[in-house]
């Protein structure tokens, strides 16, 4: 059985989501989840079910009991007793079943969380062919769950400790002769599996020679031993037994860093001083982005993608910390920050991920690991 929330936490989730549904004039909400890494969290958040393969839905009426809906071919994939939604349906085409069920219940306006990126095409076609009005509900659903309860925050902290254990596992073998990128990643994955993450990991590496890493995220290589001057940035993105994701990265190198890397680190050091004050309750996501990205922009550096984003049971949640996102940051939101800083010529990058809790004053950094380049000699 997966680790399940308390009855009070489940009631809080449904109360908040239904309040958002009422504001949007919805009769029902379809919450989509997929096996695609990081995209199963909505279903787990609303049902407790962990998707092992394929996809699933939770159908939430504005009033009444929710229903978990699965494709028939997934009847024996996953533990269907693992969760808190006990009304379950297995349908050859879940979209057809949901369209009929909602029409029979006289529903008219139906929101979908996951309409653009998660919902199966055959189910979307079935819903669109019905008389229902189908509307996207991604941002609204994410904002309804963005402020974490104390119970949730305890689960986030547990995952953070697990993620750090993976980093130290990598660090402990970094100075062994002949190790490869994959050897290092295997140490972290072993630590994550032992701690109960299961398949809820998405780990990549940025790397390069001569003290510089190129900007492309890649799968760790398993054939070539590391060179002394390699720079490695393992992006460790994991969800613990509770299903809450956190992200963490620190650079590793035993050699001399390149001039481009030192410039990127200089900007990162200034960024690190700004983050706690930028991520304050009452600030907007746009303003936080402007403050945190300024040290990079002033040096003529590029930013590869959004500066950060809310993170929870789904790996990337709204609000994003980026231009034009005028969402107010609220106390106890959890934000992953990770400027993907790239040199002006596009050949080198620096990337550190950290997970923060929004507070009334300065934001709380959930990791205890120093923001610096590690050389393999450090220990926790």
Characterize the structure shown.
- With 380 residues, the chain is an alpha+beta fold.
- The chain has two domains: 7-144, 3-Layer(aba) Sandwich (Creatine Amidinohydrolase, Chain A, domain 1), CATH 3.40.350.10; 150-365, Creatine Amidinohydrolase (Alpha-Beta Complex).
- The protein is 32% helix and 22% strand.
- It has nine helices and 18 strands.
- It has helices at 7-23, 41-47, 94-104, 121-128, 138-144, 150-173, 181-194, 259-278, 285-298; strands at 28-34, 55-61, 67-71, 88-91, 109-113, 133-136, 201-208, 231-239, 245-248, 251-253, 302-303, 308-310, 317-321, 334-337, 340-342, 349-351, 354-357, 364-365.
- It has a six-stranded mixed β-sheet with strand order 4-3-2-1-5-6, sandwiched between helices.
- Helix 3 packs parallel to helix 4, helix 6 packs antiparallel against helix 7 (181-194) and helix 8 packs antiparallel against helix 9 (285-298).
- The longest helix has 24 residues, at 150-173.
- It is globular and about 70 Å long.
- The model has no long low-confidence stretch (mean pLDDT 95).
At a glance:
With 380 residues, the protein is an alpha+beta fold. The protein has nine helices and 18 strands.
Helix content: 25-40%
Query: Helix and strand succession?
Result: HEHEEEHEHEHHHEEEEHHEEEEEEEE
Q: Please name the CATH architecture of the largest domain.
A: Alpha-Beta Complex
Name of the top-level CATH class of the largest domain: Alpha Beta
- CATH topology assignment of the largest domain: Creatine Amidinohydrolase
Low-confidence spans? none
Count the domains: 2
Number of helices: 9
Return Rg in Å: 22 Å
Termini separation: 32 Å
The percent range for strand residues is 15-25%
